[in-house]
Design goal:
By secondary structure, this protein is mostly helical. The chain is built from 17 helices and no strands.
C-alpha cells in the first residue's frame, strides 16, 4: 500500500476511534509499565511465531498470576473474538492502555506489522523502566540515611535522654540551656514523630490530588524549572518519535500525546502546538517560546523536518535529554549524600553534647 494512502487511512481510522477516550467510562486496572512491557514483548514473540492473535492472548492469560490482569485479558480476548480490531478492544480500557499505545497499534494494524509495532512499544517501555530504575537506585541511599536518622533521633529522645535526665535529679534549673531544650524536646518526641509521619502521609496525599499545582510551583523555581523542562522534553520527544516512526501523522500524534498526559499545563502547550500545526506551521516553529524546550532542540527539529528525518532527530533529542537528566540527578544525589551525613551527625552531636554538658560543668565546679 502506498505511504500516502496508508497515512490517509490511518488518519481516518484515528478520527473514527478518537471518541473512545472521552465517551467511554474509564475501566480496567492500571497496568504497571513492567506488566505492559511484558505484555507487548510476549505478544510480539507469539505473533512473530505465527500464532493467531486470539491464541496468543489465551497463552498470555495462562502465564498471568494476577486476577485483575487475567480478567482484563479475558475481556480483550472476548472483544477481539466478537470481531473488533485489537486496538479497538484495547481502547475500551484507557485506564490500562495509554492512548499512544493504542494509536501505535492502530498504525501497525493498517500496515500489517503489529508484531513489529509491539516490539517497538516493548523497547520504549523498557527504556522508561530503566530510567525509573536508575532514579530509584540513586534515591535509595539518601532515603535509607534519612530513615535511619529519624529512627536514631526518636530512640535517643524517647528512651536515652529521659534516663540520663533522671541522673540529674533536682538540678534541672541549673542545667545548661542546651540540655534543658533537649529534655523538653524529649518529652515531645513521640508526638513529634507521629506528627512527622502524618505530615509525610499528608504531603503524599496532596501530591496525588494536587500534582498539577506542585509542578506549576516547581516550574517557577530557578533550578527545578530546567530539570522539569528536560523531563517534559524527554517525554515529548520519545513518545512523538515512537508515534511518527509507526506512521501516525504528526497532528494525530500530538493529539495522542495530549490525551496521554495528565498535566494540564502540558496539555495546554500541546494544544498550542496542534493549533499552530493546523495553521500550516512546522513543528519547530510551533515549539518556539515554550518553556520546556531549548533553542538547540528547536534547531535540531527544524533540520529533521527539512531532511525528512524527524523521528530520528526526536529520538536523538530523547536520548540526549535522558543522558543529561541522569547526569544531573547523579551529581545532585552525590552532593546530597555528604550533606545528609553531616547534617545527621550535627543533630546527633548536639543531643550527645546536651547529655554530657552537665557532667563537664560538675567537673569544673569540683576542680
Amino acid at each position: 500500500m502506498p505511504a500516502a494512502e496508508l497515512d490517509l487511512l490511518l488518519e481516518e481510522e484515528i478520527k473514527r476511534n478518537s471518541f473512545r477516550d472521552s465517551s467511554l467510562k474509564r475501566r480496567g486496572t492500571k497496568l504497571p509499565k513492567k506488566t505492559l512491557r511484558r505484555f507487548s514483548s510476549s505478544l510480539a514473540r507469539l505473533l512473530e511465531g505465527g500464532v493467531s492473535l486470539l491464541k496468543a492472548l489465551q497463552v498470555i492469560q495462562g502465564k498471568s498470576p494476577r486476577r485483575s490482569y487475567l480478567s482484563l485479558l479475558k475481556e480483550v480476548e472476548e472483544k477481539v473474538s466478537q470481531g473488533e480490531s485489537f486496538s479497538a478492544a484495547l481502547s475500551s480500557f484507557p485506564e490500562s492502555f495509554p492512548n499512544y499505545f493504542i494509536q501505535t497499534l492502530q498504525a501497525g494494524e493498517l500496515s500489517g506489522s503489529v508484531d513489529k509495532v509491539l516490539h517497538t512499544l516493548a523497547l520504549h517501555l523498557e527504556k522508561e523502566e530503566e530510567r525509573m530504575r536508575k532514579v530509584k537506585e540513586a534515591l535509595a541511599y539518601p532515603v535509607l540515611v534519612l530513615t535511619l536518622a529519624f529512627l536514631t533521633l526518636l530512640i535517643l529522645l524517647q528512651y536515652v535522654i529521659p534516663k540520663i535526665a533522671a541522673l540529674y535529679g533536682d538540678y534541672e534549673a541549673s542545667l545548661p540551656a542546651l540540655t534543658r531544650f533537649v529534655l523538653g524536646l524529649s518529652s515531645l518526641a513521640l508526638p513529634l514523630g507521629i506528627g512527622f509521619i502524618l505530615s509525610l502521609g499528608g504531603v503524599a496525599f496532596l501530591w496525588n490530588r494536587k500534582k498539577e499545582a506542585f509542578l506549576s510551583f516547581f516550574f517557577k523555581l530557578p533550578f527545578l524549572n530546567h530539570f522539569l523542562g528536560k523531563t517534559l522534553l524527554l517525554q515529548f520527544s520519545s513518545l512523538l518519535s515512537l508515534l511518527l516512526e509507526s506512521g501516525i501523522p504528526i497532528l494525530q500524534a500530538i493529539q495522542s500525546l495530549e490525551r496521554t498526559s495528565s498535566l494540564a499545563f502540558f496539555q495546554k502547550d500541546l494544544r498550542k502546538i496542534e493549533s499552530s500545526l493546523r495553521e500550516g506551521d512546522g513543528l519547530s516553529h510551533s515549539l518556539e517560546n515554550l518553556s520546556w524546550i531549548d533553542n538547540s532542540s528547536c534547531a535540531l527539529i527544524l533540520s529533521g523536518e527539512e531532511s525528512g528525518k524527524l523521528p530520528d532527530v526526536l529520538k536523538q533529542i530523547s536520548k540526549d535529554s535522558a543522558q543529561e537528566l541522569e547526569s544531573q540527578t547523579h551529581f545532585l544525589l552525590k552532593l546530597l549524600e555528604p550533606l545528609l551525613i553531616l547534617g545527621v551527625g550535627l543533630v546527633v552531636g548536639v543531643i550527645v553534647l546536651s547529655a554530657i554538658l552537665p557532667i563537664l560543668e560538675i567537673n569544673e565546679l569540683v576542680r
